[in-house]
Amino acid sequence: MERTVTVEPEAGLHARPASKLVQTANRFDADVSIGRAADGDDGLVRADSMLSVSGLNVEHGESVRVVAEGPDAEAALDAVCDLLTSPVEEDADGKETETDGDDTEDAS
Amino acid sequence: MRTLDGVGSTPRSGVGTVRWYRPDADLTLPDRPDPESVDVDAELERYETARDAVRSALRDARDRTAERVGEEEAAVFEAHEGFLDDPTIIEDVETAIRDGTPAAHAVADRFDEAVAQFEGMEGRMAERADDLRDVRDRLLRALLDADGGGPAATDLAALPAGTVLLAERLTPSDTAALDPDAIAGIATVEGGRTSHAAIIARSLAIPAVVGVGEALESIADGETVLVDGDAGTLVVDPDDERRAAAEGTGPAVISERVATADGRPVEVAANVGGESELDPAAERGADGIGLFRTEFLFIDREAPPTEAEQYETITAALSAFPEDRVVVRTLDIGGDKPVPYLDLSDEPNPFLGRRGVRLSLDEHADLFETQLRALLRAAATEHGDDLAVMFPLVTRVEEVERAVETVESVAADLADEGVDHAVPDLGAMVETPAAAFVADALADRLDFLSVGTNDLAQYVMAADRGNDAVAEYHDPLHPAVLRALDRTTAAVEETDAWVGMCGEMAGDPALTELLVGLGFDELSMSAVTVPDVKRRIREVDADAAASLAIDALACETRGEVLDVLGLDDREG
Predict the structure, then answer these.
(1) SS3 content of chain A, % helix, strand, coil (to 5)
(2) Is this model's pTM higher than 0.90 or not?
(3) What does residue B482 show for φ and ψ, rounded to 5 degrees?
(4) Whether the predicted interface score ipTM is above 0.85
(5) Secondary structure element (H or E) that encloses residue B15, with its range
(6) A57 at the B interface (CB within 8 A)?
(7) Which residues of this UniProt protein bind phosphoenolpyruvate (chain B) (predicted)?
(8) CATH fold for the domain made of B261-540
């Protein structure tokens, strides 16, 4: 299954949002991959790799496609897309959480 | 025994064992062995062990940074951990090891490839190259150190007691990470007395000699060195006599307040730039804090501190000096202290531009109000009646009037909200010729003035304090600067206000008599010099000091001033 969302964090997929994304993808058994929506299947990279995610150089406002496959694919997709669509990324202790999933378009 | 010369930065001495800090060191790998001779299982295990060690170091660094600086700044270590445990990197490194590459070479190869991918790109992508290099070096240090021959990772906060730290240069955050109880001294190839790192070392009372030059490289790890911050020298393999002199405790601390020999009280306070400097200041007998810089709350982070965070810090300072005055300077940014998230405009001449109270009354009024709310709330706490607040870089009477109005309106807001608060004593810093010339008008509207001599000398003498080429002009003993000081103290004498000094000049015992003679009620300095200045005040006769000041003010040149003070020519 997959979804296409617009990246909300101001920092794009850099610095903290990138670390959080990688940490989140690592929490699930599902294989999660991510890429620019416009780049199709060739643009997908592993979401659990800091190197790959940073290498995408995705900025705030870009449209990205997230693909998840495996037993907990749906939960993984929810968690990853929540992060991508929250302007302020979730803190470890839940402070400053501002979840906003309205930008999600289900595409699967 | 051999001696190297530098510039004494903290006037203390210490002896210890040399440890070089080389964050940029090239980690040289041994030659690649024949793949057949590589023990694959052992190398795989070494790679995993090294990753465990680095992960734990990164988490320590993360927690420490979160605690001392802030969550935002700590996030970089999470990114580092992401690269450390990147599954694609791990797969590639393990494959290379299985093909007969030792772990260290496999790590270096894979990370260099990743660095090359990001290198030469702009902005955030270039920062990723730095992150990758940092993780690579940490891993290599862990791997090479396990071989017994390589340099160990240097955790600045956990150096063994009696370490003399040598470095090409130290950043302010390097210096702030040091444990003052463990470090016997520091010495650097580069740097000057007034660099921010040197000022932090002085605040932590760490013996320091800076600007030693390339000769410092002649000292090796493990050698015994005496760092003499008074003389500005390093003595390698000092003899027993030198060692004993250095190891003798510093001058005895005088914890009570002092007065001149004929009974005129003079307060001796400490300049403090962060919470970690509070206890050292109290231990050295400071009669309170004459300058609490608040910039450390704002720099090296991505967003300004909250009101709650500032309130915590201010009340911590008040608790450290329950019986004494704590003078907090409101945010003094701009000039040479840029803050990235504030988007300060690039100015051709920042020292003559938007800085100090100019920003607080205008584009950063919001930060100013938040800071004042924290201060007024802190003033209503148990030890808050000794809180005083001063505004930096004042030039015009209108600025003081507007700042006082802002304090009143913040007080009114807090009253409306039913929040406990009190209005502390208010003062202005005298750092500009303008402020010195209108000191009478400022003092009429305020409770106190405090002279910042580093900036005052810079502006009176038109000489950038950071520019070595005009160092001889940046001279607090020039008659023009002394007359500006006199103008300020004389103006305050006619009023109910008090006047202090919180520049570097205040901490020089050779100038104490002159400053007492000029009429300063309070001298505030790096804590390390408090005992010397207190001792000197007790020796001074106030009347004799006043005549000395009159003689100094009559001088026309620096040379004449030095003659009057009985000093040889000295660094400014």
Answers:
(1) 35, 20, 45
(2) no
(3) -60, -40
(4) no
(5) strand B13-21
(6) yes
(7) 293, 329, 454-455, 465
(8) TIM Barrel (3.20.20)
> Which amino acids of A are annotated catalytic?
14
- Per-position DSSP letters for B476-498, written without gaps between them: TTSHHHHHHHHHHHHHHHTSS-E
Among A14, A49, A51, select the one facing B124 at the smallest CB separation.
Answer: A14
- Domain residue ranges of chain B, discontinuous segments joined by +: 2-22+155-247, 35-146, 261-540
What is the DSSP code (8-state) at residue B89?
Answer: H
pLDDT digits (tens, 9 = 90+) for B150-176: 444 467 777 888 899 998 877 655 676
CATH code at A66? Answer: 3.30.1340.10
Q: How far B127 CA sits from the closest chain A CA (Å)?
A: 9
In a domain, residue A96? The reply is: no
Report the phi/psi class of residue B28: left, alpha or beta, with left for phi > 0 and alpha for psi in -120 to 50: beta
Which DSSP category does B347 fall into?
Answer: -
Q: What is the dihedral of CA B551, B556, B560, B565, to 10 degrees?
A: 40
In 10 A of CB B300, how many CB atoms?
A: 19
On whether the CB atoms of residues B264 and B46 are closer than 8 A, the answer is: no
Q: Which of B196, B364, B383, B421 is catalytic?
A: B196
What is the structure's pLDDT at B148?
Answer: 45
How many structural domains is chain A composed of? 1
Task: Establish if A14 belongs to a structural domain.
Answer: yes
**CB-neighbour burial class of residue B55 (10 A; exposed 0-12, middle 13-18, buried 19+):** middle
| The predicted structure's pLDDT at residue B321 | 95
Note whether B504 contacts A: Cβ–Cβ < 8 A.
Answer: no
In CATH, the number for domain B35-146 is 1.10.274.10
Structure tokens at B54: 């680095």
In a domain? residue A107 = no
Angle (nearest 5°) at CA B80 between B76 and B83: 140
Q: Do domains B2-22+155-247 and B35-146 have the same CATH topology?
A: no
Chain B within 8 Å of A52 (Cβ-Cβ)? yes
CATH topology of domain B2-22+155-247: Glucose Oxidase; domain 1 (3.50.30)
Q: What residues make up the domain containing A30?
A: 2-87
Confidence at A96, pLDDT banded by 50, 70, 90: very low
Return phi, psi of residue A7, to 5°.
-75, 120
Residue A105 lies inside a defined structural domain of this protein: no
Q: If you search the block for the tokens 């790192």, which residue do you land on?
A: B197
At residue B221, what are phi and psi to the nearest 5 degrees? -50, 140
Measured in angstroms, the CA of B89 and the nearest CA of chain A are apart by 8
**CB under 8 Å, gap of 24 or more: what pairs does A85-93 form?**
A85/A5, A85/A6, A85/A7, A85/A8, A86/A8, A86/A9, A87/A8, A87/A9, A87/A10, A88/A9, A89/A9, A89/A16, A89/A17, A89/A20, A90/A20, A91/B71
